[in-house]
Amino acid sequence: MVLQGGGALGAYQVGVYEALHEAGIEPDWVIGTSIGAINGALIAANPPQQRLERLNAFWQRIEHEPRGLLPSLCFPFLGNAAMNWLTLVAGIPAFFIPNPMALLGQHAQIGVENAAYYLTSPLRDTLAALLDLDYLNARHTRLSLGAVKVCSGEMHYFDSRREAITLAHVMASGALPPAFPAVCIDGEFYWDGGIYSNTPIEAVLDDHPRRDSLIFSVDVWKPDGPAPDTLWQVAGREKDIKYASRANSHMARQKQIHHLRHVILKLANAMPERLRNSAEIKELDSWGCQTTMHVVRLVASGLDGEDQLKDIDFTPASIRARRKAGYEDTRRMLDLSPWNRPVDPIEGVIIHDMLAAAPSMLGKGVDGFAGRTK
Q1: What is the dihedral of CA 162, 167, 168, 169, to 10 degrees?
Q2: pLDDT tens for residues 193-234?
């Protein structure tokens, strides 16, 4: 599973996992950034029979529901907007709270670990109660977390295959500036990997050794959308484009690279045996492969009326709606199971993009896909 970052939009990913879990499909590797890292940790750091329970507990704790009558009486005409603004002002008790040091002003030298509008110590406490790090580091399920180095600007993946994962690693992957502070790990400061690459699928496809894979890439930001008419809509569209993180171009390039790997192997196999066994040709041949990677792209279609604050819309109704959409989209994809169909052996990466499908598409084969099974 490859999970984008996107704050409250990550509820869609919970629905995706729920449908996979019901179908008896458990990932052997989860990779994510930001909220995708948190959801990924909740999956990988718990045994399969506890994963949904822990995911449910996390999302219930970070729901932002008006307490008392004041919000509903004062802002009934604003809908979720009032709650979103309240989140900006007061935070979410189990997730993040305002940072008093931010009141010193934008130019106060308060240090990289304090230079943020909110504190995420509540998130650390929440995750500490829900993650079984001993289980995770026993390597039952591989977990990779994307973060960016503050000082060098380089992307880095913490990987349970190489190192013990701690709460700090999860927190670092979700440290989105300037809202959240940087996290220090082994003397290096890290921010949310989403500011560099919010769709970390290239780390999966570049992994070595390569092997046949079925990859569920769960995107919560839509790269396409209508032209905006207002400044508010411009801000929302800009955020969509930024955090969709060039997913389409990344996938096109990876598809091209893996096609070339298959071409290299085919050319090497076509050579006479005396050449094929030479050291030079063996070295060139090592760049080839014959693996087939099916990438199932599930892209959240969004809710009616959402705006640029959708990623902080932690209201119960929105969380339920996004989760339901992820569940239904995944069930439709599982019913179609396009990865079971024959493919051209020269292709290394086969992409399955599903339309925001209506139930009537079930059973219609490739017609249920946006742009076909490519």
Answers
A1: 40
A2: 999 988 888 888 888 888 899 999 999 998 888 899 999 899
